[in-house]
Each structure stands twice: as structure tokens, then as C-alpha cells.
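FAQ: What does the model actually see?

It sees only this:
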Amino acid sequence: MVNYAHRGASSYVPENTLPAFNLGIEMGADGIETDIRRTKDGILVLFHDDTLERVAGVGEAVEELTYKELLEYDLGIWKGEQYRGTRIVRLDDFLSEYGTRLGMHLALEIKGKGIALDAYDEIISHAGMTYEITSFSYESILEIRKAHLEPKLGYLTSNFSHDEIKRLVDDGMNEICPRADLITPSLTAYAHEKGLRVRAWGVKDMDLMIHASLSGVDGMTVNFPDLLTAYLRRNNEGKNI
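And it is asked to produce this:
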């Protein structure tokens, strides 16, 4: 099972930043999940929210600012003085730094509207990566699938059902990403039977983490990759006794 650091080790350090990604890896994550938006001047960057309000105290959106303007905002100080000066990360720089690390899996979520194909083009310009492109927007991943057969695509959904699984299979998707509290062993097994990987999101606490693991998922995004690393290690050690 892949341990995806959700926006990096975001329980501990500023999300979607180099410190978050590096700490996630130090904590044993073998995957990184992040979010893609496009600036006013067309640069693809990593940012989750609709606006900068929560992390930088301003109401403007990434899409309303140029990359140069975004660099003026400190995206780390909200998590502590030690992160002062942390800046937004370009997708291209992220892929160059983490994409070819041995055993690293990338989950790249399309957040911005109308950027799916541009994001795909930038992603495939980096060879040798293990990745999947995901989104809560089914239209975004379907747009990529209609244009390209090669990428691994996953849908982030709050509807984990037989019908949803069948829809993804019919449309040539590779992964279903249900909210963790909706996951059951039987639905996971059905998804596997149909050829889909299952990755959980919304893993807010240890109980949900354990529930998803026991349900047989192929991976999960967690803000606390150290806890998942420890849990998986204990399980593996128990199996080897």
C-alpha cells in the first residue's frame, strides 16, 4: 500500500511546500499528493485552496495573480516562525525534484478549471515517473482520457458504489479515490475485480486510517505519514513473526 503524504506532511509543516514534501519522505512516505492550479500568466503551481486567505491572509486566488506576484506572499509563516519565507512551488520544479526518486509515487490533483491538458503536457515532459492524475472534476480527467490513452487517471469521489465503479471502468479510468468513511472491504474487492486501484482520501484520524487499511485499499493520502509508516511497519513485523 502506498503511503501518500497529503500535500506533504501537512499536519506538521506548511502544505504543498518543499519542507512538507521533504518531511513526508523523511517520515517514510513513498508517495506525495499535491494540487495543481495555474497562475494569471500561465504558470502551473502547487496550491490547494480557492484563495490565499487561509495560508497567507489575502482573499485573492492563484488564478488572479502572476507567478511573480505570488512569490511576494509568504506561505509558511502561518505554520510557525521557522517556516518564514516559504514560497509557492512550480509544478515543473516539483516534478524535477521528486518525480524520478526511486520508488516514489506522485498523485497530482487537478484543481484549476481548464488546465487538465496543459497539466498533462507538463507532467509527461518529465520521463520515468510513477504517477496518477486525479481530480474531483470528472470532466477534467475525462478530457485527458479522450485525448490520451497513456496516463493513469483517478477520480476523487464521495460516491463509492458499484455504479460509480462501472462508470470509471467504462470510461477507461485506472483508479477510484473514495472518501475513507465510505470504503468497505466488499466495494474495494469489487473495484479490484474490475481492474481499478483504490486510494482513500479524507483520512482524518487513526481510526479511519486503520479502517481503510483493513478494507484493502492500495493507498491513502494522510497528513501524518509518520503514523501510517509506523502502522504498516508493525503490521509487516507481525506477519513475519
